[in-house]
């Protein structure tokens, strides 16, 4: 039988409820402890000061309220309390803090373990190891420093610890001690994505050498200009693809078509097919290693073939000392300095996620001088980013968080004498910029992984490094080289932060020597990037420009593909460096926020030209978006100019469109919306669409969409479609259907995750094996929801999967008891963890099970029992206190029992017994049982 929530199950701790009630009513203040004993400030109680008188206005003079136990001394009883731990006003964790009795005093003081002190940021080298050492499990806060102080606010379940800076390590904000990074337990994880669809398409045959229609490789209907026009297939060779030929469509692009659907016969044909796809992401965690494999299985009814494909397989492990990751198997190079390359081999790279939040991304170091003890504010675009107090003399702020506001940083120094002085630190960012002292690197050794290569896959090495030198300069460089003399490239660059904006410039030199051909190619490429944010006007501007010295500049992928082509044709006459090599590229983007109700606009443009050919492509895009009341609308337009021998000259393609989203019905979580859109394309015609989408259910677990569209491309056609989805606690299901006069399609899909762990098998609505997850164990708490995790709930075995955790960060995982049985009490509703990447973390939430009863008890004279009176069970154990209205909450009494209520030492006038009997349980009923009883 249990009345009060307890953390360690001891009888003594059951009295916490009385103290919490008193605190919540304002009957007692916060409770403090300093190095010299109970804190002497207004928040503490001095036992030597005599009795404390409480204001009876809180209880309206009721005689049934007994708070005499709180009239002397600190009411915190010895025991273990789960409290929010704050150090110098910064929340650190949720900890089980032990309070121990002090001889000769009623004041219980908190004590700390050595690991807890280190987690709080205490500098272990400055501690007296004779007193403060790992073997001491109960360390007084006064042992850290004479100025240290701990204050408990039991009403808020919070413990504030004040430590002088001299006793602390200098750490960046957001720092999490690597000792707290949890690699979790051995587990198997898997996520799946299944999709199956059935299609039925009708089409017309046409002449073999003329314009007509054909069935595309993807099952769609394609109008073809000429059956004998071909283009490069995806691997760069002039030949039919496996499904037929590539033909020139009336839209001007080359598309793959089924050769059997384009014949000399005429008339109508139809085809039907059923396809299925299953994608699997598999993972095994063991001994700190994370093994991952991505697989896919496809099935086609028309061919009767089932195909299995291993997409990639990797094994990864953290390297804490270097703040890096080691990956073996199939992966990609970082793609920051050189283009990303798929490979099979080994890579070691620095992992920014292991750095504190305030060391990630780019932000400048702020340096200044204070004349007095000053308060320093760091602002950007009027937003306060950081505030601190500094001593007289030079100061340095090097742990600003990377921000999305953009614009220069204003530093305001508020001196103690009332004077204020300010200065500005330029701030603009390009991707290459790093904050001072931060390095980013990667080393890769492996074999190029490209399924289109048929004549061998060369081995290569790649190394890159970036280093933030100071506020305005970051240097970077890299090298790529194949094992043999096929390819080498070198890159050097710099990124500069100035008041005019941020610039990045680098130069790459490549050397290619093709085996079996007398072709030694060499060239340079130059890249310039620029970014500027003008927050005063809401303007963001970015430019990226690329220039190639000649047609002989090749990337690693170009060189590998060229060697494969030369080997295939066994000819040295093919100049693989000539056709369609980039000459220059330019990309410009401009976004403008007009502020308030005036909306925002973007402009974008790009131009590409090529060597040894008249090819060029230029694109302009513009868009505007705004809202009126609850209605959102946007307009967009683009113009593309292409010049190529394929088009026998040049052509223009203009596109524009408008879309409107209108909420329907009253505001609410499941409010549906209507979307209307119309688009025009010079080549594909007009398309009008209307759709209604929304969700329903108490947790928005169901979603739906219905749409109708009209297109005049080739032949006018109206298409209607509908879909319905359900995101359950253990997976997601959806179904869809589309109908048009030339085709019908129906499909179903399912997705979710599975975790096999020491506690068994647990399902999840979604799962990414590359992200950390937590296995929540809450016995008997079926139906409790994970507050921050969508539809996830505790299953019948007491387990659930929590996803969305941030690696190397302190994460709060919380349970919502709504939906659980009344006979189950969650003693813990929030747990913290700092998982490693890809780890599976077990998290235990303590629960207490037993029949819950609310006893309405009165004394023999009809008066209510005194509020705050002690309640003891038949064994004399304290199980709680009397609540308002003489109510007693009891858990664990299946049939009934007897309780002793005591509000004084006089057994005749200040004690009585409550005996009660419970009715039989009603099968399927899950409600709090209420009984009336009299205390004799």
Automatic annotation (TrEMBL):
<dbReference type="InterPro" id="IPR025885">
    <property type="entry name" value="PapC_N"/>
</dbReference>
<protein>
    <submittedName>
        <fullName>Fimbrial biogenesis outer membrane usher protein</fullName>
    </submittedName>
</protein>
<keyword id="KW-1134">Transmembrane beta strand</keyword>
<dbReference type="Pfam" id="PF13954">
    <property type="entry name" value="PapC_N"/>
</dbReference>
<dbReference type="InterPro" id="IPR000015">
    <property type="entry name" value="Fimb_usher"/>
</dbReference>
<dbReference type="Pfam" id="PF13953">
    <property type="entry name" value="PapC_C"/>
</dbReference>
<keyword id="KW-0812">Transmembrane</keyword>
<feature type="domain" description="PapC N-terminal">
    <location>
        <begin position="53"/>
        <end position="196"/>
    </location>
</feature>
<keyword id="KW-0813">Transport</keyword>
<dbReference type="InterPro" id="IPR043142">
    <property type="entry name" value="PapC-like_C_sf"/>
</dbReference>
<dbReference type="InterPro" id="IPR018030">
    <property type="entry name" value="Fimbrial_membr_usher_CS"/>
</dbReference>
<keyword id="KW-0998">Cell outer membrane</keyword>
<dbReference type="Pfam" id="PF00577">
    <property type="entry name" value="Usher"/>
</dbReference>
<dbReference type="InterPro" id="IPR025949">
    <property type="entry name" value="PapC-like_C"/>
</dbReference>
<feature type="domain" description="PapC-like C-terminal">
    <location>
        <begin position="854"/>
        <end position="919"/>
    </location>
</feature>
<keyword id="KW-0732">Signal</keyword>
<dbReference type="InterPro" id="IPR042186">
    <property type="entry name" value="FimD_plug_dom"/>
</dbReference>
<keyword id="KW-0472">Membrane</keyword>
<dbReference type="InterPro" id="IPR037224">
    <property type="entry name" value="PapC_N_sf"/>
</dbReference>
<keyword id="KW-1029">Fimbrium biogenesis</keyword>
<comment type="similarity">
    <text>Belongs to the fimbrial export usher family.</text>
</comment>
């Amino acid at each position: 039988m249990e009345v009060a929530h307890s953390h360690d199950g001891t009888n003594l701790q059951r009295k916490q409820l009385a103290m919490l009630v008193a605190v919540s009513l304002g009957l007692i203040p916060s409770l403090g402890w300093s190095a010299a004993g109970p804190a002497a400030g207004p928040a503490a109680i001095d036992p030597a000061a005599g009795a404390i008188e409480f204001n009876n206005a809180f209880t309206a003079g009721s005689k049934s309220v007994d708070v005499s136990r709180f009239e002397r001394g600190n009411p915190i009883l010895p025991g273990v309390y789960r409290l929010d731990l704050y150090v110098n006003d910064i929340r650190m964790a949720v900890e089980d803090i032990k309070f121990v009795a002090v001889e000769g005093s009623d004041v219980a003081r908190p004590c700390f373990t050595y690991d807890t002190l280190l987690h709080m940021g205490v500098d272990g080298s400055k501690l007296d190891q004779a007193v403060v050492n790992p073997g001491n499990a109960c360390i007084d806060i006064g042992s850290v420093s004479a100025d240290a102080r701990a204050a408990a606010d039991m009403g808020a379940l919070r413990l504030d610890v004040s430590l002088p800076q001299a006793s602390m390590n200098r750490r960046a904000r957001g720092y999490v001690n690597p000792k707290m990074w949890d690699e979790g337990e051995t587990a198997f994880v898997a996520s799946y994505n299944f999709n199956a669809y059935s299609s039925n398409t009708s089409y017309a045959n046409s002449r073999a050498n003329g314009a007509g229609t054909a069935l595309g490789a993807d099952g769609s209907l394609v109008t073809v200009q000429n059956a004998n026009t071909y283009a490069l297939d995806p691997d760069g060779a002039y030949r039919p693809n496996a499904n037929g030929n590539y033909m020139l469509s009336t839209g001007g692009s080359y598309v793959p078509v089924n050769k059997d659907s384009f014949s000399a016969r005429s008339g109508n044909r139809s085809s039907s097919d059923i396809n299925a796809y299953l994608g699997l992401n598999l993972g095994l965690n063991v001994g700190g290693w994370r093994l991952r494999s991505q697989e896919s299985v496809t099935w086609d009814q028309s061919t009767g073939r089932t195909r299995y494909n291993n997409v990639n397989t990797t094994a990864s492990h953290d390297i804490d000392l270097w703040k890096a990751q080691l990956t073996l198997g199939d992966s990609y190079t970082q793609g920051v300095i050189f283009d990303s390359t798929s490979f099979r081999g080994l890579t070691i790279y620095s992992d920014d996620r292991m750095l504190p939040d305030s060391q990630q991304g780019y932000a400048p170091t702020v340096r200044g001088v204070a004349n007095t003890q000053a308060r320093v504010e760091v602002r950007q675009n009027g937003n306060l980013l950081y505030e601190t107090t500094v001593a007289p003399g030079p100061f340095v702020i090097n742990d600003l968080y990377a921000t999305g506001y953009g614009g220069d940083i204003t530093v305001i120094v508020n001196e103690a004498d009332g004077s204020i002085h300010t200065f500005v630190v330029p701030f603009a960012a390009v991707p290459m910029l790093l904050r001072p002292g931060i390095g980013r690197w990667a080393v890769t050794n492996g074999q190029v992984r490209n399924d289109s290569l048929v004549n061998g896959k060369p081995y290569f090495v790649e190394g890159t490094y970036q280093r933030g030198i100071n506020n305005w300069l970051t240097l970077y460089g890299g090298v790529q080289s194949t094992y043999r003399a096929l390819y080498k490239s070198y890159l050097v660059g710099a990124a500069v932060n100035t008041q005019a904006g941020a610039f990045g410039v680098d130069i790459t030199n490549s050397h290619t020597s093709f085996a079996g051909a007398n072709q030694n190619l060499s060239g340079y490429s130059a890249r310039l990037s620029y970014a500027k944010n003008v927050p005063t006007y809401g303007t963001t501007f970015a430019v990226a420009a690329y220039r190639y010295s000649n047609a002989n500049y090749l990337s690693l992928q170009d060189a590998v593909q060229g060697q494969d082509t030369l080997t295939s044709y066994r000819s040295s006459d093919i100049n693989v460096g000539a056709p369609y090599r980039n000459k220059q590229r330019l990309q410009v983007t401009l976004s403008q926020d007009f502020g308030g109700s005036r909306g925002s606009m973007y402009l974008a443009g790009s131009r590409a030209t090529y060597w040894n050919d008249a090819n060029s492509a230029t694109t302009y895009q513009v868009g505007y978006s705004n809202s009126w009341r609850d209605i959102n609308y946007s307009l967009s337009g683009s113009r593309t100019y292409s010049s190529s021998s394929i088009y026998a000259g040049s052509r223009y393609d203009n596109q524009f469109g408008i879309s409107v989203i209108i909420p329907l019905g009253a505001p609410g979580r499941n409010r549906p919306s209507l979307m209307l859109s119309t688009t025009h394309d010079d080549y594909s015609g007009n398309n009008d669409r209307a759709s209604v989408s929304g969700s329903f259910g108490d947790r928005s677990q169901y979603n739906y969409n219905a749409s109708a569209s009209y297109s005049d491309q080739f032949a006018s056609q109206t298409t209607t479609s509908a879909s319905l989805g359900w995101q359950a606690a253990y997976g997601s299901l959806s179904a869809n259907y589309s109908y048009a006069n030339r085709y019908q399609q129906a499909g179903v899909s399912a997705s979710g995750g599975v975790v096999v762990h020491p506690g068994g098998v647990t399902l999840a609505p979604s799962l990414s094996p590359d992200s950390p997850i937590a296995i929540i164990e809450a016995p008997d708490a079926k139906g409790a929801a994970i507050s921050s995790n969508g539809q996830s709930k505790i299953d019948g075995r007491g387990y659930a999967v929590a996803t969305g955790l941030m690696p190397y960060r302190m994460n709060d995982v919380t349970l919502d008891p709504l939906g659980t049985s009344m006979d189950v009490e969650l003693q813990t509703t929030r747990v913290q963890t700092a998982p490693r990447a890809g780890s599976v973390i077990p998290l235990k939430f303590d629960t207490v099970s037993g029949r819950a009863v609310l006893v309405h008890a009165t004394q023999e004279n009809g008066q209510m029992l005194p509020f705050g009176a002690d309640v003891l069970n038949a064994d004399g154990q304290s199980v709680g206190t009397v609540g308002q209205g003489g109510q007693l909450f009891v858990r664990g009494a299946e049939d009934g029992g007897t309780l002793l209520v005591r509000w004084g030492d006089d057994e005749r006038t200040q004690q009585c017994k409550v005996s009660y009997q419970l009715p039989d349980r009603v099968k399927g009923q899950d409600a709090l049982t209420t009984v009336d009883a009299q205390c004799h």
